Amino acid sequence: QVKLLRVLQEREFERVGDTQVVKVDVRVIAATNIDLQEEVAKGNFREDLFYRLNVVSIYLPPLRNRREDIPRLIDYFLDKYNRLNDRKLRRISRDLLNVLLRYPWPGNVRELENAIERAVVLSRDEDFTEDLLPLSVRMFAQQRRISQSSESIETLTRRLADQAMADYELREGEIYQLVIDQIERALIDRALARCNGVKTRAADYLGINRNTLNKKVKELGIEALD
Fold it and tell me: Is the Cβ–Cβ distance between 92 and 128 less than 8 Å?
Protein backbone atom coordinates (compact mmCIF):
# COMPACT_ATOMS: atom_id res chain seq x y z
CA GLN A 1 0.00 0.00 0.00
CA VAL A 2 2.87 2.37 0.76
CA LYS A 3 4.43 1.88 -2.68
CA LEU A 4 1.12 2.38 -4.45
CA LEU A 5 0.51 5.53 -2.43
CA ARG A 6 3.88 6.89 -3.56
CA VAL A 7 3.00 6.23 -7.22
CA LEU A 8 -0.32 8.03 -6.85
CA GLN A 9 1.04 10.90 -4.81
CA GLU A 10 4.50 11.51 -6.26
CA ARG A 11 3.83 9.99 -9.72
CA GLU A 12 7.07 8.06 -9.59
CA PHE A 13 8.43 4.63 -8.67
CA GLU A 14 11.57 2.52 -8.74
CA ARG A 15 11.79 -0.83 -10.49
CA VAL A 16 12.67 -3.85 -8.36
CA GLY A 17 16.45 -4.04 -8.05
CA ASP A 18 16.94 -0.60 -9.60
CA THR A 19 17.76 2.77 -8.04
CA GLN A 20 16.61 4.93 -10.94
CA VAL A 21 13.38 6.82 -10.36
CA VAL A 22 10.81 6.44 -13.13
CA LYS A 23 8.28 9.22 -13.64
CA VAL A 24 4.77 8.19 -14.67
CA ASP A 25 1.61 9.90 -15.84
CA VAL A 26 -1.23 7.42 -15.50
CA ARG A 27 -4.90 7.29 -14.65
CA VAL A 28 -5.81 4.59 -12.12
CA ILE A 29 -9.17 2.81 -12.16
CA ALA A 30 -9.65 0.66 -9.08
CA ALA A 31 -12.50 -1.68 -8.20
CA THR A 32 -13.41 -3.59 -5.07
CA ASN A 33 -16.24 -5.70 -3.71
CA ILE A 34 -15.54 -4.86 -0.06
CA ASP A 35 -16.35 -1.78 2.02
CA LEU A 36 -13.02 0.08 2.07
CA GLN A 37 -14.24 2.64 4.61
CA GLU A 38 -14.97 -0.24 6.97
CA GLU A 39 -11.51 -1.69 6.26
CA VAL A 40 -9.98 1.72 7.02
CA ALA A 41 -11.83 1.80 10.35
CA LYS A 42 -10.49 -1.68 11.14
CA GLY A 43 -6.95 -0.63 10.27
CA ASN A 44 -6.68 -3.02 7.33
CA PHE A 45 -6.45 -0.31 4.66
CA ARG A 46 -4.48 2.93 4.76
CA GLU A 47 -6.69 5.98 5.12
CA ASP A 48 -4.41 8.19 3.01
CA LEU A 49 -4.39 5.61 0.20
CA PHE A 50 -8.16 5.34 0.36
CA TYR A 51 -8.61 9.08 -0.15
CA ARG A 52 -6.03 9.12 -2.94
CA LEU A 53 -7.98 6.43 -4.79
CA ASN A 54 -11.42 7.75 -3.91
CA VAL A 55 -11.44 10.81 -6.18
CA VAL A 56 -14.45 9.85 -8.30
CA SER A 57 -16.59 7.00 -7.00
CA ILE A 58 -19.07 4.99 -9.03
CA TYR A 59 -21.28 2.67 -7.02
CA LEU A 60 -22.50 -0.35 -8.96
CA PRO A 61 -25.32 -2.13 -7.11
CA PRO A 62 -25.27 -5.94 -6.92
CA LEU A 63 -27.04 -7.71 -9.75
CA ARG A 64 -29.95 -8.71 -7.50
CA ASN A 65 -30.75 -5.00 -7.09
CA ARG A 66 -30.82 -4.26 -10.82
CA ARG A 67 -32.74 -7.20 -12.20
CA GLU A 68 -33.80 -5.19 -15.25
CA ASP A 69 -30.24 -5.71 -16.55
CA ILE A 70 -30.45 -9.51 -16.41
CA PRO A 71 -32.32 -10.14 -19.72
CA ARG A 72 -29.85 -7.96 -21.63
CA LEU A 73 -26.90 -9.67 -19.97
CA ILE A 74 -28.35 -13.10 -20.79
CA ASP A 75 -28.70 -12.12 -24.46
CA TYR A 76 -25.16 -10.75 -24.53
CA PHE A 77 -23.61 -13.85 -22.96
CA LEU A 78 -25.68 -16.18 -25.16
CA ASP A 79 -24.41 -14.39 -28.27
CA LYS A 80 -20.84 -14.47 -26.98
CA TYR A 81 -20.68 -18.13 -26.01
CA ASN A 82 -22.79 -19.38 -28.91
CA ARG A 83 -20.17 -17.91 -31.24
CA LEU A 84 -17.25 -19.30 -29.25
CA ASN A 85 -18.74 -22.81 -29.01
CA ASP A 86 -20.61 -23.00 -32.32
CA ARG A 87 -23.95 -23.46 -30.57
CA LYS A 88 -27.44 -22.07 -31.18
CA LEU A 89 -28.89 -21.96 -27.68
CA ARG A 90 -31.56 -19.30 -27.69
CA ARG A 91 -35.12 -20.30 -26.78
CA ILE A 92 -35.78 -19.65 -23.09
CA SER A 93 -39.23 -20.08 -21.55
CA ARG A 94 -40.91 -17.37 -19.53
CA ASP A 95 -40.84 -19.58 -16.42
CA LEU A 96 -37.11 -20.17 -16.71
CA LEU A 97 -36.46 -16.49 -17.33
CA ASN A 98 -38.42 -15.71 -14.15
CA VAL A 99 -36.15 -18.10 -12.25
CA LEU A 100 -33.07 -16.29 -13.55
CA LEU A 101 -34.65 -12.95 -12.67
CA ARG A 102 -35.47 -14.05 -9.10
CA TYR A 103 -32.23 -15.88 -8.31
CA PRO A 104 -30.11 -13.65 -5.98
CA TRP A 105 -26.82 -14.07 -7.93
CA PRO A 106 -24.41 -13.79 -4.98
CA GLY A 107 -21.53 -13.89 -7.47
CA ASN A 108 -23.08 -11.03 -9.46
CA VAL A 109 -22.44 -10.71 -13.21
CA ARG A 110 -19.54 -13.18 -13.18
CA GLU A 111 -21.80 -15.90 -11.75
CA LEU A 112 -24.47 -15.17 -14.36
CA GLU A 113 -21.88 -15.30 -17.12
CA ASN A 114 -20.56 -18.64 -15.88
CA ALA A 115 -24.11 -20.03 -15.72
CA ILE A 116 -24.84 -18.99 -19.31
CA GLU A 117 -21.50 -20.32 -20.56
CA ARG A 118 -22.21 -23.66 -18.86
CA ALA A 119 -25.66 -23.84 -20.43
CA VAL A 120 -24.28 -23.13 -23.90
CA VAL A 121 -21.52 -25.73 -23.61
CA LEU A 122 -23.97 -28.42 -22.42
CA SER A 123 -26.72 -27.55 -24.91
CA ARG A 124 -27.62 -29.78 -27.85
CA ASP A 125 -30.23 -27.63 -29.58
CA GLU A 126 -31.89 -24.22 -29.32
CA ASP A 127 -33.93 -24.91 -26.18
CA PHE A 128 -32.62 -23.38 -22.95
CA THR A 129 -33.86 -25.83 -20.29
CA GLU A 130 -33.48 -25.81 -16.52
CA ASP A 131 -31.19 -28.86 -16.46
CA LEU A 132 -28.50 -26.80 -18.22
CA LEU A 133 -28.18 -24.47 -15.23
CA PRO A 134 -25.79 -24.90 -12.27
CA LEU A 135 -27.00 -26.90 -9.27
CA SER A 136 -27.40 -23.80 -7.09
CA VAL A 137 -29.83 -22.23 -9.57
CA ARG A 138 -31.75 -25.49 -10.07
CA MET A 139 -32.15 -25.91 -6.30
CA PHE A 140 -33.38 -22.32 -6.05
CA ALA A 141 -35.94 -23.01 -8.80
CA GLN A 142 -37.18 -26.12 -6.99
CA GLN A 143 -37.49 -24.31 -3.65
CA ARG A 144 -39.33 -21.47 -5.38
CA ARG A 145 -41.86 -23.89 -6.88
CA ILE A 146 -42.47 -25.43 -3.45
CA SER A 147 -42.84 -21.97 -1.92
CA GLN A 148 -45.26 -20.85 -4.63
CA SER A 149 -47.33 -23.99 -4.09
CA SER A 150 -47.55 -23.26 -0.35
CA GLU A 151 -48.44 -19.64 -0.98
CA SER A 152 -51.14 -20.72 -3.40
CA ILE A 153 -52.76 -22.95 -0.78
CA GLU A 154 -52.57 -20.15 1.79
CA THR A 155 -54.17 -17.75 -0.67
CA LEU A 156 -56.96 -20.19 -1.48
CA THR A 157 -57.55 -20.82 2.22
CA ARG A 158 -57.88 -17.11 2.97
CA ARG A 159 -60.21 -16.71 0.01
CA LEU A 160 -62.32 -19.63 1.24
CA ALA A 161 -62.55 -18.11 4.72
CA ASP A 162 -63.64 -14.75 3.30
CA GLN A 163 -66.20 -16.40 1.03
CA ALA A 164 -67.56 -18.56 3.85
CA MET A 165 -68.09 -15.58 6.14
CA ALA A 166 -69.87 -13.75 3.34
CA ASP A 167 -72.09 -16.71 2.38
CA TYR A 168 -72.94 -17.69 5.97
CA GLU A 169 -73.22 -14.19 7.37
CA LEU A 170 -76.74 -14.90 8.67
CA ARG A 171 -75.70 -18.17 10.34
CA GLU A 172 -73.52 -16.75 13.07
CA GLY A 173 -72.33 -19.43 15.47
CA GLU A 174 -72.42 -22.15 12.78
CA ILE A 175 -69.81 -20.85 10.32
CA TYR A 176 -66.88 -22.88 11.63
CA GLN A 177 -68.61 -26.25 11.48
CA LEU A 178 -70.24 -25.54 8.12
CA VAL A 179 -66.89 -24.72 6.52
CA ILE A 180 -65.03 -27.61 8.17
CA ASP A 181 -67.71 -30.06 7.00
CA GLN A 182 -67.37 -28.86 3.42
CA ILE A 183 -63.58 -29.07 3.48
CA GLU A 184 -63.65 -32.55 5.02
CA ARG A 185 -66.24 -33.73 2.51
CA ALA A 186 -64.19 -32.47 -0.45
CA LEU A 187 -60.91 -33.85 0.93
CA ILE A 188 -62.30 -37.30 1.73
CA ASP A 189 -64.17 -37.46 -1.56
CA ARG A 190 -60.96 -36.69 -3.52
CA ALA A 191 -58.94 -39.19 -1.48
CA LEU A 192 -61.51 -41.93 -2.09
CA ALA A 193 -61.54 -41.16 -5.81
CA ARG A 194 -57.74 -41.36 -5.87
CA CYS A 195 -57.85 -44.72 -4.05
CA ASN A 196 -60.69 -46.18 -6.18
CA GLY A 197 -63.18 -45.90 -3.32
CA VAL A 198 -61.23 -48.19 -0.96
CA LYS A 199 -61.53 -46.66 2.51
CA THR A 200 -58.48 -48.39 4.01
CA ARG A 201 -56.21 -46.98 1.33
CA ALA A 202 -57.87 -43.56 1.52
CA ALA A 203 -57.36 -43.46 5.30
CA ASP A 204 -53.67 -44.32 4.87
CA TYR A 205 -53.33 -41.69 2.15
CA LEU A 206 -54.85 -38.99 4.36
CA GLY A 207 -52.94 -40.16 7.42
CA ILE A 208 -56.01 -40.78 9.58
CA ASN A 209 -57.44 -43.81 11.37
CA ARG A 210 -59.87 -45.94 9.33
CA ASN A 211 -62.48 -45.71 12.09
CA THR A 212 -62.24 -41.92 11.88
CA LEU A 213 -62.71 -42.09 8.12
CA ASN A 214 -65.71 -44.43 8.48
CA LYS A 215 -67.30 -42.04 10.95
CA LYS A 216 -66.78 -39.05 8.65
CA VAL A 217 -68.09 -40.95 5.61
CA LYS A 218 -71.33 -41.69 7.47
CA GLU A 219 -71.68 -38.22 8.98
CA LEU A 220 -71.08 -36.45 5.67
CA GLY A 221 -73.05 -38.88 3.51
CA ILE A 222 -70.13 -39.83 1.26
CA GLU A 223 -70.36 -42.94 -0.90
CA ALA A 224 -67.49 -45.40 -0.48
CA LEU A 225 -66.67 -49.09 -0.79
CA ASP A 226 -66.69 -51.21 2.38
Answer: yes
Three-state secondary structure readout of 134-171: CHHHHHHHHHHHHHHHHHHHHHHHHHHHHHHHHHCCCC
Tens digits of per-residue pLDDT, 52-81? 888 888 888 889 899 999 999 999 999 999
pTM score of the predicted model: 0.56
- Number of structural domains the chain divides into: 3
pLDDT confidence of 168, banded at 50, 70, 90? confident
Q: Which domain holds residue 124?
A: 63-139
* Domain shared by 132 and 179, yes or no: no
DSSP-assigned states of every residue in 48-105: HHHHHH-SS------GGG-GGGHHHHHHHHHHHHHHHHT----EE-HHHHHHHHHS--
In a domain, 159, yes or no: no
Please say whether the beta carbons of 220 and 187 come within 8 A: no
Q: How far apart are CA 220 and CA 226, in angstroms?
A: 16
CATH number of the domain where residue 117 is located? 1.10.8.60
Beta partners for residue 127, in sequence order: 91
Does residue 9 sit in the same domain as residue 68? no
Q: Are residues 187 and 226 in the same domain?
A: yes
